Amino acid sequence: MFSIDRLRALAAVATHGSIARAARALHMTPSAVSQQLAKLEREAGHPLLQPHGRSVRLTHAGRVLAGHADRLIAQLASAQADLADLGSEVLGPLRIGGVGSAVRTLLPDALAALAAEHPRLTPTVVDGEAVDLLPRLVDGELDLLLVESWTTRPLAVPEGVTLRTLIGEEVYVALSAHHPLAGRSTIDLAAHADLRALADTAWACCPPGTEPHDTLVQTLRTRGVEPDIRYLLADHLTQLALVSRNVAASLTPAMSRRPAPPDVRFLATRPALRRDIRAAWLARAQSPPVRACLSVIAAAVATAVPEVPEVPEVPDGDGEEG
């Protein structure tokens, strides 16, 4: 009979790629993890690890057993969650991470509802980008994420992470009221004249490696335009402050349009750009606090994205230039 603790150690090495990182995730010493794995190898009757540079990698037998370990651990977590649900309260810590616009728009009402419904639950929140938050989720530092996935750059997640789409929204090009295209209601990404105007515009955007940055670059680069990104700012509202002064343009999701500063115009794109906000959690760690938070966030989604009045379209004059 295999020990669940030893199977958990093997699963952690398979997930994190080294004994040291697995030890950190399990809050154990590397020596203790190595001892658990040595005992598991004797129980299995097969070598489970082999040296790989300065680290280790799983043998074929190790990968087979790690697959079974993942399923057993997930089933055990499900049993523990079911037992916890038998109690009258959802309690304990809930560590949430999210992109700033989702935190600002979805979480305040959700946290208030959690406090009212589950007063012994203790949520904490950090903001950031998916590229930084997902490793913390996998390492067990966070329980639930609110991350973004853009149509032109779908979010890739590690194995074992579950995603649920909470809300989908349109993405706009934000321009100053003094920009040459500001009188329009849409920007045609297939029109030469529109693309030339965007090529001559400086951009404010989130830092490289983030979904918004890579979406902007990919969207324009595939159409022959290299965006002039001068301002690397994680917060959409800070980007809009520059837009209002005709310093830059930005890609702005619907939920970040308010509160917009004066003199900002939001132009839809053709074809439409869209962004999904998705909840992410480890499948093997869907605890009652995570389920409770997902429930109250779902209730907050209905009022998450206010309508913004359309700007009347002004005729383009001579039309598209060849």
From TrEMBL:
Gene3D superfamilies: Periplasmic binding protein-like II, Winged helix-like DNA-binding domain superfamily/Winged helix DNA-binding domain
Keyword line: DNA-binding, Transcription, Transcription regulation
Chain ranges of the HTH lysR-type domain: 2-59
Chain segments annotated as transmembrane: none
Pfam families, per the entry: HTH_1 (PF00126), LysR_substrate (PF03466)
InterPro entries attached to this UniProt entry: LysR_HTH_N, LysR_subst-bd, WH-like_DNA-bd_sf, WH_DNA-bd_sf
PROSITE patterns: HTH_LYSR
Record-stated family: Belongs to the LysR transcriptional regulatory family.
Protein name: LysR family transcriptional regulator
Source species of the chain: Streptomyces yunnanensis
Lineage: Bacteria, Bacillati, Actinomycetota, Actinomycetes, Kitasatosporales
